[in-house]
Every structure is written in structure tokens, then in C-alpha cells.
């Protein structure tokens, strides 16, 4: 069950990892969950049946894509809340940011319907104890997208991806719902470098309330 953390333990109980496409959310969330002995809740991106069509014809598939994300992510979080109280949880998504993609991808009528629905549903979802926001520049994201080799991502419009980057920056500039750790992810290689994971894990366990920053390049 997702709850607020125990005040006797400085490690957050519910951690959400976020950032633009290709930044390494799932890799980091998976490794954090292992290191912290937490349950990992995987996003539904790879099982969204509309996503490939969205990358080809966003105007036609945008609404169905967003609604599938909303319903499936709500289902994941509801199932976790029904589980054992106090279980540590790490997710590779933050449900509140779905509105950003909806506003970016939907037309005016679709956005109105989506917004009115989510305004009600998001009131039932607890905020994480900590959000880790991974940042990286466009060339780094394009390189990582190419390296991970998902077929439907390979022809992603770089202008669209830059709009996503900008959207995330605006969102987290105003984010106050939970503690926030902003990480320069262009300098982190969690998959191949255990030292990077150890550095970030130390930051997570010592993070303070409010806004926090971690730039691995300055700690090397």
C-alpha cells in the first residue's frame, strides 16, 4: 500500500522517477528498487496498444493513447494501494505529469474531456514522498533512444522531443506536491557504472524536503 514514509526512516517509501523519453527512467527505477529493497511498479508504456500508431499519426491516435495511459496507470497504483501497508515502492512514472502530454497531443475538445476526467481521478492518487526528475539535453536523449532500439521510436521527430523536454522543465519548475530531486542524467550511467548508482542512492537517502539538485559531474 502506498503511504507516507515512516518518520524514523529517512528513505522515502514512495519514489517516482520521471523525465523525458529516453532519459533512463526505467533503468534508474529498477536499480533503485533493487538497492532499496522496494517493489518496482513498471509503467505501461510498452503495452500501450495505441503508442506505435501515435508516433505515426499523433492527431488520430493521441486521445486513445492518453486514455490508455491514464486507465492503466490508475489501475497499477490502485492495486498497490490495496496491498500490504508500508511497502516501499519505486515507479518509473508520475501520474500527475500525464496532463502535460495530454495538453501537448490532444485537440481542444479532447483536452477538455481529458482534463475534466483527470481533475476528479487524480484526487484519489497520493503524491510520492520523493520525485526524481532526470534531465538530459536533446542530443543525449536521441542517442539513448537509438541505442535502446525500440522500432516505433526510431523516427521520432526531434522537434517534438524538444517540446517534451521544455514541457518537463516548465512542469517541474512549479512542482511542489512532494520532495523533488533534480538530476543531471547526462552524466549518469546507471546501467553500466555501479558507482553512479551508489552516488545517487546516497542522495536519495539524504534528500531534504523541497527542491534538491544533484549534478554528478561536480562530485566526480
Polypeptide structure, described:
The protein is built from eight helices and six strands; from the N terminus they run βαβααβααβααβαβ. The protein has 220 residues and is α/β, with parallel strands linked by helices. It has a single domain (15-218), classed as 3-Layer(aba) Sandwich (Rossmann fold). The protein has a six-stranded parallel beta sheet with strand order 2-3-1-4-5-6, with helices on one face. Helix 3 (58-81) runs antiparallel to helix 4 (98-105) and helix 3 (58-81) runs parallel beside helix 5 (108-121). Mean pLDDT is 83; it is low at 1-8.
Give, in spatial order, the strands making up the sheet with the most strands.
2-3-1-4-5-6
Summarize model confidence as the mean pLDDT: 83
Structural class by secondary-structure content: alpha/beta
N-to-C order of helices and strands: EHEHHEHHEHHEHE
C-alpha end-to-end distance: 37 Å
Percent of residues in beta strands = 5-15%
Helices, by number, come to: 8
Count of discrete domains: 1
Fourth-tier CATH superfamily name: P-loop containing nucleotide triphosphate hydrolases
What is the highest CATH level, the class?
Answer: Alpha Beta
CATH fold topology: Rossmann fold
How much is the radius of gyration in Å?
17 Å
Weakly predicted, low-confidence segments: 1-8
Number of strands: 6
Tell me which oligomeric state these chains represent: single chain
| Largest sheet entry | 6 strands, parallel
Q: Percent range for helical residues? A: 40-55%
Q: What's the architecture in CATH terms?
A: 3-Layer(aba) Sandwich
- Shape assignment: globular
Amino acid at each position: 500500500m502506498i503511504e507516507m514514509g515512516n518518520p524514523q526512516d529517512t528513505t522515502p517509501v514512495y519514489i517516482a522517477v520521471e523525465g523525458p523519453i529516453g532519459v533512463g527512467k526505467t533503468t534508474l527505477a529498477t536499480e533503485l528498487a533493487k538497492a532499496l529493497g522496494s517493489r518496482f511498479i513498471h509503467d505501461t508504456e510498452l503495452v500501450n496498444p495505441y503508442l506505435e500508431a501515435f508516433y505515426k499519426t499523433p492527431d488520430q491516435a493521441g486521445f486513445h493513447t492518453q486514455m490508455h495511459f491514464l486507465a492503466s496507470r490508475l489501475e497499477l497504483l490502485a492495486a498497490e494501494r490495496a496491498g500490504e501497508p508500508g511497502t516501499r515502492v519505486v515507479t518509473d512514472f508520475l501520474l500527475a505529469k500525464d496532463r502535460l502530454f495530454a495538453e501537448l497531443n490532444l485537440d481542444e475538445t479532447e483536452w477538455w474531456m481529458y482534463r475534466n476526467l483527470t481533475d476528479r481521478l487524480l484526487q484519489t492518487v497520493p503524491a510520492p514522498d520523493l520525485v526524481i526528475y532526470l534531465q538530459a539535453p536533446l542530443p543525449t536523449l536521441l542517442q539513448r533512444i537509438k541505442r535502446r532500439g525500440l522500432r516505433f521510436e526510431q523516427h521520432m521527430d526531434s522537434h517534438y522531443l524538444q517540446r517534451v523536454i521544455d514541457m518537463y522543465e516548465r512542469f517541474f519548475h512549479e512542482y511542489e506536491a512532494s520532495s523533488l530531486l533534480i538530476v543531471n542524467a547526462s552524466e549518469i550511467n546507471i546501467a553500466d557504472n555501479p558507482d553512479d548508482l551508489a552516488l545517487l542512492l546516497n542522495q536519495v537517502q539524504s534528500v531534504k524536503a523541497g527542491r534538491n539538485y544533484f549534478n554528478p559531474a561536480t562530485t566526480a
